[in-house]
Amino acid sequence: MVVTTHHLALFNIAHGKYPLDDARMAGFTSALDRVNALADRSAGFVWRYVNAYADGASAEPVYADPLILPNLSVWESPEAAMAYVYRGVHGGFLQARERWFREIDGPSAVAWWVPMGEQPSLAESRRRLELLAAQGPSAEAFSLREPCPVPAPESESA
C-alpha cells in the first residue's frame, strides 16, 4: 500500500474571446454548473476554488485582463485529474474550446504537489504557471501529462 501525504494541485487559465455575459459565450457559461458538479462528484476530486467566475470576474483578481479565466482544483492523483479533464463531458468541452477561447502563448496549465488539506491560492497558482513557462518542468511546476513524483513523507526522526 502506498501512503502519501500530498495531493495534486491543478491550475489552468483560458483566455475568453468575449466577456462571460456575451451571448456568444452561452454554450460555455450555460454548462459551467453541470461541468463543475461533475468534477465535484468525480473519483479522486478533493477541492476546487468555487468563486472563480463570481459576477463575471475572479473573486480573487489574479490577472488584469478580465477575459483570462482561472480554474484551480486539487485531486488525489494525476490519474484522477486526467480522467476528469480529458474524458467525459469535460473532455468534450476541452475539444470544443476554440469556440469560446483564444490560443494562449505558452503553457495554460500547471500542476504541483500540495500537502493534504492545503488549498492553494490563485496568486500561488499563477506564480507556478509562470515558473513552468520560464523554467520548464520541475518539482515545483509540471504538466499533468508528465507529473513529478509525489514527495516522500518526511521522516519523523530528527
TrEMBL record:
Residues 139-158 are annotated as: Disordered. Residues 8-146 form the DUF3291 domain. Pfam families: DUF3291. This is DUF3291 domain-containing protein. It comes from Actomonas aquatica.
